[in-house]
Design goal:
Length: about 1400
């Protein structure tokens, strides 16, 4: 087991004084030696590891150990916060009492090395090791036996991989593959805990894993195929699936006997470095008390998961009072911090019933894992405890709940102002906590615990006493969050009362989120005025209304509503929670149309996703258009595929970290590097001293902008410069290890002057006259005109148009805003630069535009372009965010300066702050329309887009907005002007569907506004305005051309039938009539998406055995580019002999700017098409060269006689290649794609439509996406398996943009607060439509690259159907309240935005009483 052996390097000398950045080393010891020496003992993938105490770095995470020491790179690092699941591994230990192996899942990025003591760690590589052993044994048996006996139902290739990895790959459950090892490990830990898990149980385990590529559906299907009640079909590749759990004894490793033999490992341990002392007492409370006595200022830890939120800071900075930046929320390590690990203290993690007098309690050890508490609550069969269990399912995620403790969560609520769900629900349940110290134990109720200024000294929270509820007790808990799962609460509550004969007694109302975040600001509060009001009274409408008023007043007095939409929503949520509680307490006394409000949406959310994918293409060009899974899929799913961050670095490599300025729109007075350069391991830094005023641009160098007017960004800024945006680089710190560089970067001290408030809103930029002026070279001010909209609108206003001809016309005015969106790729920016004396600089990086990187880096280094070689193999996602030349240039400068290789990997927070995503857009419109039909006669549209601190690529998004606004609608008179404003943000980067989704949602909002004005269904108004499939009309709108095939009419009509739109629309109306506080919405929206195929080149090399190597200019980032090119190459070369090549014979080299220069970027979803066409042309050239060779070979073969008969001629491709090479034929060909008009692109339109239905909780603003039906014209897909995944993933990314992905800024510093998983919430599996059907249009196969169309971006736009379904549901609730005005709803329509829009419906409860009588 070579991979595991790497975890146990042998060494002679163990250093006794280790810094936190020195690598831990393992030493092979006997069990007796290890126990006596206090060594760290654990196992990795079945191999025992023992590390002497003086070799353990307690600051090191398990992730760092696995990746940097063991070189097990399958376990990824992405967010570093425990929020994405890419780093998930499974831990197990032997339960000697139960005599069995127990399992837990952990985020390795959060798990400190000392916490794995006694545990067996299984990584993604560990899953494959047993498969490889079996495969090797089978191969050996087969070689010695003529008969090979099959022992499993997997294919020969699949035998080399764990069944989970193989299943995920075979069912297309991956694209870029970066998140896939974490997904596989999540499925693995689920089945190890419960081999008989149901589909619903398996789906629920994905609350801590993010996938930005696939949209989750194929991952869920693959996972659910192992369920005990599996009912899954492979609709794409039509594989026969073996349903149910795999044979774990056959495929999984046994618990290591060597680790089992160590027993419980109770001995005391101590690990220490410069910053941290980690103490692990023996298994007794006496030992814990003794440790407290020895370390009186120590903190207690169990899972240490809080470091995902509150990140430790190596040294204390100066305060901000003198203008010196500082932001730290974690431990400030001025001195050593001591941590006492109580995870294995039996008394602190036991859970059992306890009687105190006549009262019965559930005693929960403070160190109990949240997941273990959930098990105890679920098995109690007590309704109130079941409520607690269901609430805990929404806390954090499975990986955190398996590691984090109950007491740890409570301490965060107490000391950090953490808005804890656990503190609230235990408070509401009347729990008490027990402290233990040297003088014994003391009890304290939750209210005293949360409100007391300081924690008891020299005491540890040992247990929680949870009282069993009394008779007639009614207990409920509530929460609302930006995302249903794995998201901290905006507001939460726990309410209880004794309900008898409709009378309320023993009322306890607890709510959190009503105070500002101060020292104890987020703590839960008793709502005493409302408690007193309800106590002893009968529940009727009068009391109901009075209680609502009292709650609203209480919340309003506590909440600072001026703190933004989220703060204001807490007032409404507190009242809504109370409404739901009182309705549930009222029982049968609730009116029928309010009954559905008693429960939230959990039951709907818990439904298993059902999905279907449909397509049908002829196989005449096989393997083109065949649904083939990614050839590298199993390698990706087993963690064997390598990314840039996985590169094996050479000896002497240095590591880098960015030092950044954290005060936007301020002038830098002084940069003090002295503290940073004195940090351990630091070699130095590069800064503006090396770069001067060197600039960079997304599209390389030179760029068309003037530096002074358009603020073309500098690589570094320095003293005297104004900081364009928060986290702008000032220096790159270089050190011996990554940890050392990161620590040093935090010590760069910057003093500011001339501080101004950052420009973060379009309105502020306009006031400050930061509107970008038009220039001739770029569409900074994009316009589009048709007819004379200005005159038409004026004539309508003045009544000059003949009404008898056009019916009655009118004018509408309105506005709309679309917020930004982050790319949120899973692999952060990474770059590895190697100086080369002969070739200058070798740069390994993940980039969508190697040529631009080549130009910018060469400019920064002051060398010719051919002295920089950009190498790229694969990326963990991009979505428009990997145009990163400026980042790579800093690393190249460092490598040049220090004459050594340098590696930089940005953490998620820095990456998220430095790389701007989709720009915020604000638009206004004036519409002239027919008041009877809703037909639009004229549209005047004006918009402003926030482009960041410079123009950069913002013009492209702005141009797309202007050209896409009309969508598929007939607009006879059109006047569009789209402008841009500068803001205190990083330069805008294109995000999947740049400008297109903003255009679509704004145009659909215009349609909705017109429909509202005339009182008609928006669906019918869409149809009235939609272009018909008539040649003259299409020509008038520029939709007929060489690459066009207008399929919108067919798609719309067929989708209406497929999704049964009219029947379901009626059912939605009926549902809304019958329900006041639950509403549904259904909407169907069309899509037109303009595509460009940019120039690409491909070099095809043939070998004498018929195998092929292809080098192309595209960037492989999960879109199946290599596979599609291979399919085209296999088909095109196969034309020579009439038999397609095997795609297994076609391999690809990494992208290299030395191999192919001056390549275009990969973006806009058409990179695969461009590369495929370039490769096809190269293959056609090779076929034309070799055809004479084949004909000659055939002639010679036919000339040979045998028995008087002409021999049958069958010449293989390999034979032709060998003959051609021997004959001196050139075996390479370079193909190039650019359109025939001499431009760098070709163009076409894609069409589609989507119908989505949602259910909305009027009280909390939460919603469930019930069903989405996508119908998309992919023409003749090059690979429908890949394109189906692209379409689903794009749609789900759009759902995130429409509903929950929100950018949040610090208005004073300009910091993007939503720069990681804590505040930014991409979709999870829970967000997938409960019914998810995707269909590709059949029969549209004319033109383009082998008749194909792209699918990576257009389906994202169809998520507008979700947004307007939400709008319809809100509209129904408002109409019930008598509010019929057309209301403004902003993208994203987050839960807080929805709460604001639903305010009239909540207010109406006071005049529309919900109770009978």
């Amino acid at each position: 087991m070579g991979a595991a052996q790497a975890c146990v390097p042998k060494f002679e000398d163990v250093k006794t004084s280790l810094t936190p950045t020195q690598l831990m080393k393992a030493k092979v010891m006997t069990a007796e030696e290890a126990l006596k020496s206090g060594a760290l003992i654990f196992a990795v993938n079945g191999e025992l590891v023992t590390i002497p105490a003086n070799g353990v770095d307690p600051s090191m995470s398990l992730n760092t150990y696995l990746r940097e020491i063991c070189k097990l790179k399958g376990t990824k690092l992405s967010c570093g916060e425990g929020g994405c699941g890419a780093c998930a591994v499974t831990l197990s230990r032997w339960d000697h009492k139960a005599n069995k192996e127990i399992f837990k899942s952990v985020n390795s990025c959060l798990a400190p090395m000392p916490s794995v003591h006694g545990w067996a760690v299984t990584t993604i590589e560990g899953l494959r090791s047993k498969a490889l052993e079996r495969a090797n044994k089978t191969a050996a048996d087969a070689s010695s036996s003529a008969k090979k006996e099959k022992k499993t139902n997997q294919s020969d290739e699949d035998e080399k991989f764990h069944p989970i990895s193989a299943r995920v790959a075979n069912m297309n459950g991956l694209q870029c593959g970066y998140c896939t090892p974490g997904m596989v490990m999540t499925i693995y830990q689920t089945l190890k805990k419960n081999p008989n898990a149901t589909m619903a149980e398996i789906e629920s385990q994905f609350d801590g894993n993010i996938c930005r590529c696939t949209g989750f559906r194929p991952i869920l299907d693959a996972a659910k195929s192992f369920a005990s009640d599996a009912d899954i079909k492979d609709h794409i590749c039509k594989r026969n699936l073996s349903l149910g759990c795999y044979d774990q004894k056959l495929w999984d490793q046994e618990f290591p006997a060597s680790l089992k033999g160590f027993g419980k490992l109770n001995g005391p341990l101590k690990f220490e470095n410069k910053y941290v002392v980690w103490v692990r007492p023996s298994n007794s409370m006496n030992a814990v008390v003794a440790a407290m006595r020895e370390y009186p200022n120590a903190k207690f830890v169990v899972g240490r998961t809080s470091t995902g939120i509150y990140k430790p800071v190596p040294l204390r900075h100066e305060t901000e009072t003198k203008g010196v930046e500082h932001r730290a929320t974690g431990d400030l390590l001025t001195e050593k911090i001591t941590l006492i690990d109580v995870a294995d203290i039996d008394e602190m993690h036991s859970i059992a019933d306890k009687k105190v007098g006549s009262k019965k309690y559930l005693k929960i050890g403070g160190a109990s894992k949240i997941s273990n508490v959930m098990k105890a609550l679920k098995s109690s069969n007590v309704k109130a405890f079941e409520v607690l269990h269901n609430h805990l399912k929404k806390v954090a995620n499975v990986h955190v709940r398996d590691s984090g403790s109950i007491a740890g969560n409570l301490i965060l609520a107490k000391t950090k102002g953490f808005l804890s769900d656990i503190a609230t629900i235990l408070f509401g349940a009347g729990a008490e906590i027990t402290w233990t110290g040297e003088s014994g134990s003391t009890k304290m109720d939750m209210e005293a615990f949360l409100s007391t200024p300081k924690l008891p000294a020299m005491q540890v929270l040992t247990s929680i006493l949870l009282p069993y509820p009394g008779p007639n007790a009614h207990f409920e808990t509530y929460r609302a969050a930006i995302r249903p799962l794995n998201a901290h609460a905006i507001c939460n509550a726990a309410f209880s009362a004794c309900v008898k004969n409709n009378t309320l007694t023993e009322v306890r109302l607890v709510c959190a989120g009503l105070l500002n975040h101060e020292d104890i600001g987020a703590r839960a509060l008793r709502i005493e005025p409302v408690e007193k009001l309800l106590e002893g009274n009968s529940l009727d409408n009068k009391l109901f209304t009075s209680a609502m008023d009292a709650m609203a007043k209480f919340a309003s007095d506590k909440v600072n509503a001026s703190g933004g939409l989220r703060q204001a929503s807490r007032i409404q949520l507190a009242s809504s929670f109370l409404v739901r509680f009182l309705l549930s307490a009222a029982g049968e006394n609730v009116k029928p149309d309010f009954e559905s409000a008693v429960k939230g949406l959990d039951e709907l959310r818990g439904k298993v996703v059902k999905a279907k994918q449909e397509f049908s293409y002829p196989t005449t060009q096989a393997p083109v258009s065949m649904p083939i899974p990614l050839r590298t899929g199993k390698m990706l799913a087993s963690g064997a595929a390598k990314y840039t961050s996985d590169i094996k670095v050479s000896h002497g490599t240095l590591f880098a970290a960015m030092a950044v300025a954290r005060r936007a729109r301020s002038r830098i007075k002084k940069i003090d590097m002295s503290l940073a350069t004195k940090m351990p391991g630091v070699k130095g830094f590069v800064s503006k001293a090396e770069t001067g005023d060197t600039t960079w641009a997304v599209f390389g160098d030179p760029h068309p902008w003037d530096l002074e007017d358009y603020r073309v960004p500098l690589i570094f800024i320095g003293e005297g410069d104004i900081v364009p945006y928060h986290n702008h680089p000032v220096a790159l710190i270089v050190a011996t290890t990554k940890a050392q560089a990161t620590a040093a970067a935090s010590q760069v001290m910057i003093e500011f002057t001339d501080t101004k408030k950052p420009l973060l809103h379009i309105a502020d930029s306009i006031k400050q006259k930061q509107i970008c002026p038009p220039v001739s070279s770029l569409p900074i001010r994009a316009t589009k005109k048709k007819g004379d909209a200005k005159k038409q609108l004026a004539d309508i206003k003045e009544g000059k148009i003949d009404e008898s001809k056009d019916d009655e016309l009118s004018i509408l005015n309105g506005d709309m805003e679309v917020g930004g969106q982050k790319h949120f790729y899973m692999e952060n920016h990474v770059c590895y630069c190697i100086p080369d004396e002969e070739f200058g600089m070798k740069v390994h990086m993940c980039t969508q535009f190697p040529n631009a990187s080549n130009e910018v880096i060469a400019k920064a280094l002051g060398v010719p372009h051919n002295m920089v070689n950009i190498i790229h193999h694969r990326m963990g996602g991009a979505f428009g965010g990997k145009y990163n030349a400026h980042i790579a240039s800093t690393v190249a400068l460092a490598a040049k300066k220090f004459k050594k290789p340098v590696m930089l990997y940005l953490n998620k927070n820095i990456d998220g702050s430095m790389i701007k995503g989709r720009g915020h857009t604000a638009g206004t419109y004036n519409i002239g329309y027919n008041k009877n039909s809703g037909q639009i006669k004229a549209l005047k549209f004006r918009s402003y887009k926030a482009t960041g601190s410079c123009i950069n690529i913002g013009w492209f998004e702005n141009l797309s907005l202007s050209t896409a606004l009309s969508q598929v609608y007939r607009l006879p008179h059109l006047d569009i002007v789209c402008s841009m404003v500068l803001t205190s943000e990083p330069p805008l980067r294109a995000v999947r569907g740049p400008g297109e989704i903003e255009a679509s949602v704004m145009m659909e909002n215009i349609i909705e506004h017109v429909a509202h004005a005339i009182g008609k269904d928006a669906h019918e108004v869409r149809k009235v305005n939609m272009l018909k499939n008539e040649e003259k009309e299409l020509k008038d709108y520029g939709l007929v051309g060489e690459f066009e095939n207008y399929t919108m009419t067919k798609i719309w009509e067929e989708l209406e039938k497929r999704c049964d739109f009219y029947t379901r629309a009626k059912a939605v109306k009926d549902f809304n009539k019958a329900n006041k506080l639950k509403k549904r919405g259904i909407c169907m929206t069309p899509l037109r998406y303009f595509m460009n195929i940019w120039k690409q080149s491909a070099l095809v090399n043939l070998y004498t055995d018929g195998t092929v190597i292809v080098t192309h200019g595209g960037s492989n980032m999960g879109q199946g580019m290599h596979l599609k090119v291979a399919q085209v190459v296999a088909y095109e070369l196969g034309l020579l002999t009439g038999k397609s090549l095997s795609i297994d014979d076609i391999k690809f080299t990494p992208n290299s700017s030395h191999a192919l220069s001056c390549q275009s970027f990969t973006g806009g979803s058409t990179g695969s098409e461009g590369c495929a066409e370039a490769a096809r042309r190269a293959c056609a050239e090779l076929v034309s060269r070799m055809r004479p060779i084949l004909e000659s070979m055939e002639a010679k073969a036919k000339a040979a006689k045998g028995d008087g008969q002409e021999r049958l001629v069958s010449i293989t491709f390999a034979e032709v290649c060998a003959t051609a090479a021997a004959g001196g034929v050139q075996m390479q060909a370079l193909g190039h794609w650019a359109d025939t008009k001499g431009k760098n692109k070709a163009s076409y339109n894609s069409f589609g439509a989507c119908c989505s239905e949602i259910e909305l909780d009027v009280l909390t603003g939460e919603m469930v996406l019930l069903r989405s039906d996508l119908y998309y014209d992919a023409a003749k897909s090059l690979n429908p398996a890949v394109d189906m995944g692209q379409a689903e993933g794009a749609f789900m990314m759009g759902v995130g943009h429409m509903t929950q992905e929100e950018e949040i800024f610090d208005e004073n510093s300009g910091e993007l607060l939503s720069n990681g998983t804590w505040e930014y919430k991409p979709p999870l599996a829970i967000n997938v439509p409960k019914v998810f059907n995707v269909t590709f249009l059949q029969g549209n196969t004319s033109g383009r690259v082998l008749s194909s169309k792209a699918s990576g971006e257009p389906p994202l736009v169809m998520s507008t159907s979700v947004f307007f379904a939400i709008r319809h549901a809100i509209s129904s609730a408002r109409q019930d309240a008598g509010d019929t005005k057309f209301f403004k709803l902003t993208v994203p329509a987050t839960v807080t935005s929805r709460i604001k829009a639903l305010q009239p419906a909540i207010d109406a409860l006071k005049t529309q009483p919900p109770l009978k009588g």
